[in-house]
Amino acid sequence: MANSTDVEEDKYRYLLKGEEEKNTKWKFGAPPNYDVVNKLFEQGRTKIWPPESLGEKVQNLVKTWEMEMFHKTDLNDYKTVDLKNYTFSLNGRKPITLEEKRKRFGGGYIPLLQTSMPKELRGYDPDKETADSSHRAFTTTFPRGFALEVLHVYSGPPVIVYKFRHWGYMEGPFNGHAPTGDLVEFYGMAIFETDESMKVVKVEFFYDPGELIGGLLKGPKLESSSQVEGLGSACPILRNTG
């Protein structure tokens, strides 16, 4: 099995390899490989930031933060955030700590899909999912990954405010719906507050999760679980999450 010293440098993420990562505990036993989603990103991005620009630095910080949140299992291995002071919130909800986020939601996509919509109207109910089941659902429906680009940076550190776009192609089933092959995307705003060491101490996201989920429910309902399983084998190691 590969270790962090065997992994090639990623152009858009750091903290994946080197001596400081040699003892990192990875969710799938080894550092994630982003080659597939990086290709999707390069083919579909609408903004190319100049090297060493504020936009490039913010984009790489966000991608690295996302990688740690999804793929590092030990909080002590997180290097983008201040473990003692870090909080996360979505759409103005009460901020929660890393420990609270892990205890309440288990991590992964669940904290990013919180909704106040009545349960009977939810096309996808994050309250019924786990970090693993949600990760499996999205890596199955987006076998080439779910790419992220930073479109505009309104202010730099210590209070980074930026606009982003997330996108992928629905090439696998989702929640019992057949794949459509369509582009699914959504836009949002985020605030990352950092300390003097550029550690993230506060994250706030503002977007409509329904914009994402709605795009994944357009395909016809699959009649049986065997149909779902037959269409959903594109990403067995659950890594290309971008």
The proportion of strand residues reads 15-25%
Shape: globular
Mean pLDDT across all amino acids: 91
Per DSSP, the total helix count is: 6
Distance between the termini: 21 Å
Estimate percent helicity: 25-40%
- Specify the structural class: alpha+beta
Low-confidence stretches: 233-239
Question: Strand sequence of the main sheet, in spatial order?
Answer: 1-5-4-3-2
- Summarize the helix and strand pattern as letters: HHEHHEEEEHH
Characterization of this structure:
- This protein has 242 residues and is an alpha+beta fold.
- Helices cover 25% and strands 18% of the residues.
- It is built from six helices and five strands; from the N terminus they run H-H-E-H-H-E-E-E-E-H-H.
- It has helices at 35-44, 54-71, 98-105, 131-141, 209-215, 225-231, and strands at residues 87-90, 147-155, 159-169, 183-194, 200-206.
- A five-stranded mixed β-sheet has the order 1-5-4-3-2.
- A hairpin with a 3-residue loop joins strand 2 (147-155) and strand 3 (159-169).
- It is globular, with a radius of gyration of 18 Å.
- Residues 233-239 have low confidence and may be disordered.
Write the layout of secondary structure elements.
Layout: H1 35-44, H2 54-71, E1 87-90, H3 98-105, H4 131-141, E2 147-155, E3 159-169, E4 183-194, E5 200-206, H5 209-215, H6 225-231
Give me a quick take on this structure.
The chain has helices spanning 35-44, 54-71, 98-105, 131-141, 209-215, 225-231; strands at 87-90, 147-155, 159-169, 183-194, 200-206. The protein has 242 residues and is of the alpha+beta class. The two termini are 21 Å apart.
